[in-house]
Amino acid sequence: MRNVAILGVGQTNHARRRTDVSTIGLSREAVLRALEDADLTMDDIDSVVVCSGPVLFAAVNQPEKWLADAIGARNKPVVRVTSGGGTGLAGALAAVNQVRAGHANRVLVIAYDKLSEGALQYSISTLYDPFWGREFAVGIMGFSAAYWKSRMDLLGHSEEAAAMVSVKNHKNALLNPYAHVKKEITVEDVLNSKPLCWPIKLLDVPPISDGACAVILGSEDAAKKSENPAWIRGMAYYCEAENAAYRSMIQSEPLTIAAAKVYRQAGITNPRRQVDVVEVQEPYTCFELSYYEGLGLCPSGGAAELMASGATQIDGDIPVNPSGGCMGANPIGATALIRLAEVAQQVRGKAGAYQIEGAKVGLAQAGGGWANLRGVAVVSSEKG
Amino acid sequence: MMNDDLERVAIVASAQTQLRSAWGSMQHVDLIGATVNDLLNGSGFRIQDIDVIIDCGSDVLDGRSISNCGFLGAMGAHHKEESRVEEDGIFGAIYGANKVSGGSADVALVIAYSKPSESSVAGYYSTLSEPFYQRPLGLDHISAAGLLANQYLTYSGASEEDLITIAFESWRKASHNKDVEMLGAPSRDDIARAVRIADPLTAPQISRNVDGAVAILIAKESVARKLSDKPVWITGIGSAIDSHYLTERVPGKMKAAETATKFALKSAGISDIKQFKLAEVSATSSANEAMVVEAMGFADFGKAINCYSENSAVSINPSGGAIPADPIMATGLVRLHEAYKQLSGGYGEVKFDKAIAHGAGGLGMQNHCVITLEA
């Protein structure tokens, strides 16, 4: 298979509400930053992949059609890939395949959401089956809380452990110039915060944000002109049918399938030792704990202990979300691509104030749907 | 796709439901499940042979966010790689072909579906328009088709009579297609005298929205040769988007269809479109179909009508095309399925060695995709 590299990335300054730009202005901001980072112009881009959350979030159907003019993509291939909250990574995977197939030499992936434009939990409630689910649908929180409670009982994912995730990610976000939630908090603050759907409490929940991220991927040939590309060593995006009777949510099956495939591609046999930095997409704190196990950073039931050990802190041996993760900013459709961009910057040595020294191998995780869509990627400073 | 390290890619099976004005008794999952079962039956492939599933549907038409999530079981996607391309299914076929030719998968299933009978089609198209300049005008697919048709007649010199002929031929051919529900084809007079819903277009010249699902199976060469009697090779792919704003497009022309065709021919290593004697193209109106046929290079500007005469070198839409049956997200993939069927012997005697299929998406056909096939 042909090698594929990340040549440049860009992010917007995320905010609860960006009143200064429309959806397309927001996306353009990220695109211009990615082009600048890669030292390219739109003339160098052969193809564009657009990703966003469900269109009900911002009430423009097929928004890539509108975006095309604003980013100078007219007369180029433009397609939108949607896969729930993890759509940014699903879009990056589409771009990787365009490059591998020789269909494009350089592909721009742009992921965004402008969540201030719509009613988020209402939109999410329309995920549910119109015949047997929607009448009791209340967004995604009740569903997530129920599974956390099961994991709490079976795997020991305690409220304290989840609170430590929140404290860690909030603290890391203080270092991130693009984050908009900048608040130092304590475990007690999280435990005492208002229950929204127990055990999920206010400070277990990331913000709702406007934001965009752009990543430029290219072939080995295109990467020759790049100073410090980040090589894609593995990437996959798996699903499970929500109505599969034997679906187990205690461990995310699509996550373990995706991780196994990506580790095989990347030659990783012990992620805890071989990976230098991790970015996960945590819609609630409890999910980060679950991902530790799904990604094999610790054994099943070991997440709370791993968290308490300090290993996933920015100065630990397996730092998770040094950027602050979703706690610093959460423009849903963009967050998965942000995770990929963050690990790319880490292995390129361009992560600024939260750079993990000497990071060579980065692991990114993404997810969406009813927790039934899961993506994993490994990037490295070395081609392999 | 000529490079040595890339896999040659073939279509090895396909299936579709009948295209009906309303599939009242079937939910999305029923249509999708029936199509996937039909595709696999007798194909030599099993669901466990499929590595990746690409699906093309619309949250807006389905009335459901991330609606593909609810259909994964029916697609057979459980524990597989799956992604949605929220565009006409033929764009999903490009993704599937890339995935296989780049070596990331051996077998890819591409599924497209729509049930516009349960949706507001005008709402689907008007929310597709950006909210500041075009949407407040009340533009939808019908008014956009009228505006584009007027420009086409003004700039190309084609006549209203030409457009009526294109629509007439489409309905006539569709009346022989058992996969399209028909209550008899309209006569020329019927078309000419029907209500003018978007000047200069009468109602039968605007595509009829129908419910339905379609699927194709793509495999790499070694697998295709082993399991399929008649693989049909994907030789070229191309796509391109035009300006979102109708006022910014070249009047009377579909520039993005032209660019997409050029990309496809280049990747197929074919310099002359005239090598293709079979074309299956999409359109949301008779005038749009004329513009697509011209943009692809089958006729000079304003002369698409020549392709509908008896002595035309190219056969356009023997299936009837999209005017009698437009399942919105599935329309272009139906074209690819029809082209595959022609080349693989699905209609008996194989009369063509090559085919070109076209699909489009967006208001006033903003986004275009072209795939070339060879038996």
Total helical segments of chain A: 13
Mean pLDDT of chain B: 96
Helix content of chain B: 25-40%
Question: What CATH architecture of the largest domain in chain B would you give?
Answer: 3-Layer(aba) Sandwich
Net shape of chain A: globular
Strand order of the biggest β-sheet of chain B: 3-2-4-7-1-8-12-11-9-10
Order of helices and strands of chain B: EHEHHEHEHHHHEEEHEHEHEHEE
How many distinct beta strands of chain A? Answer: 11
Structural features, described:
- With 384 residues, chain A is an alpha/beta fold.
- In chain A, 35% of the residues lie in helices and 19% in strands.
- In chain A, helix 6 packs across helix 11 and helix 6 packs across helix 12 (303-309).
- Chain A contains 13 helices and 11 strands.
- Chain B is an alpha/beta fold and 375 residues long.
- Chain B has 12 helices and 12 strands.
- Chain B has helices at 28-40, 59-62, 67-75, 89-101, 121-126, 141-156, 160-174, 188-193, 221-227, 255-268, 286-295, 331-344, and strands at 9-16, 52-56, 81-85, 107-114, 196-198, 201-202, 212-220, 232-241, 278-280, 315-316, 354-361, 367-374.
- Chain B has a 10-stranded mixed β-sheet with strand order 3-2-4-7-1-8-12-11-9-10, with helices on both faces.
- In chain B, helix 4 (89-101) packs across helix 12 and helix 6 (141-156) crosses helix 11.
- The chains are: A alpha/beta (384), B alpha/beta (375).
- Chains A and B meet through helix 2, strand 3, helix 3, strand 8 and helix 9 of A and helix 3, strand 3, helix 4, strand 8 and helix 10 of B.
